[in-house]
Amino acid sequence: MYVYELERPEHLRDWLLMRYRVMQPVQDATGNGSWQEVVSGDVTPFDPALRPVMSPKSMFFAEREHLFEFDGETFRSSRPASEPQVLFGMKACDLTALAYQDLHFQDDPYYQARRKDTLLVGIDCSSPCENGFCSTVDAGPLVDEARADLILAPMPSIGGDQPGWWLICASPAGHGAVDGMNLTPADSHWRYWRDMNGEHARAAFPNDTYIINGIQRINARAIPDDVWDSLARKCLGCSGCSQTCPTCSCYATRDIKTEKGFYRERFHDSCLMEGFQKEASGANPTSAAGRRVARYWYHKFSGDFVRKMGRFGCVGCGRCEATCPGSIGVHSVMEKIAHV
Ligand code: SF4
Ligand code: SF4
């Protein structure tokens, strides 16, 4: 593995911008972060602490897209063109979620067309973000070297100042992307200091043993139905949780008639919606809101999904807690079920 010193992340971003479309987190007028394309000559400083409200999942698993069209004689695929692009500044939780989505959509040509020429630049976190608990679910705070092409790791700060960064080339694609940059190799102490950064960040997370307890109770099937029902009374069915969750991957399709024939569209769906599991016969195993809320959290923390996907379906980003208007995001739910 090649590791270099880097004075500022912007030096890497500007270098990559010469060859790729680059997306990075940017703060908007409301103070929220979103993924935005960097235009050449942009001098907006990169904010290492900023995490967008939405994960980048929609860049690969589009919120809404045409799959194909049919004119009465011929089917035409609407598979998107691949474009070399960079996601710059992905946190460990979102990279973990993307690896989860890569597995789920491994045979999906629409997802893969967008994903295959994407270079991932991760960034280590030095402190917990609001509502985050990545370290509890093995998704952070340091970027897993198997999940990114390049990793920015902060050097220890001196008196609050950030003296520089280590740039870790974690894949051949990452190393190739910086070929030609005038970089100084890091000395051999980088890994010690990187591990120390991870230890300090982990120690700063608040006590969340209720999440561990809640996971155990979910897997013991120890949550009475009336607990799910009482949580569900606060659910508005807005789907904010599943839209912002980086690992949610449910979708539905519909055929739209046109003058020439029809096209098929795919769009994000949510298991919190009443009609999500409704069958053509009219039967609906999750017609009760409590069953839908229970289903969502079993999908996040059940051992069945660990066996199938290799890890929990939750990466501890905390977005559902920040988003849910009914106050039934992950912390609220796990606190309640840990104590029933
Ligand atoms: S964000 Fe909250 S209110 Fe909206 S669907 Fe999810 S659980 Fe229900
Ligand atoms: S369930 Fe909530 S905390 Fe877990 S990954 Fe989804 S949005 Fe993040």
Low confidence ranges? none
List the bound ligands: iron/sulfur cluster
Radius of gyration: 22 Å
Secondary structure: number of strands: 12
What is the number of domains?
2
Distance between the termini: 48 Å
Query: Helix count, per DSSP?
Result: 12
**Strand numbers in spatial order across the main sheet:** 3-2-6-7-8-9-1-10
Largest sheet: 8 strands, mixed
Form type: globular
Order of helices and strands: EHEEEEEHHEEEHEHHHHEEHHHH
SSE class: alpha+beta
What share of the residues lie within helices? 25-40%
Pfam family, one: Fer4_22
Organism: Kistimonas scapharcae
Keywords: Iron, Iron-sulfur, Metal-binding
InterPro entries: 4Fe4S_Fe-S-bd (IPR017896), 4Fe4S_Fe_S_CS (IPR017900)
In short:
The chain is of the alpha+beta class and 340 residues long.
Give a verbal description of the structure.
The protein is an alpha+beta fold and 340 residues long. The protein has 2 domains: 2-54 and 74-203, no CATH class; 209-338, no CATH class. 31% of the residues lie in helices and 19% in strands. It has helices at 9-17, 92-104, 109-115, 172-177, 190-203, 209-219, 225-232, 240-244, 289-301, 303-309, 319-323, 330-338, and strands spanning 2-6, 21-27, 33-37, 64-70, 75-77, 85-90, 118-123, 150-154, 165-169, 184-185, 251-257, 262-268. Strands 3-2-6-7-8-9-1-10 form an 8-stranded mixed sheet. A hairpin with a 4-residue loop joins strand 4 and strand 5 (75-77). The radius of gyration is 22 Å and the shape is globular. The mean pLDDT is 95. Bound molecules: iron/sulfur cluster (2 copies). One iron/sulfur cluster is lined by residues 235-241, 272, 323-326, 328.
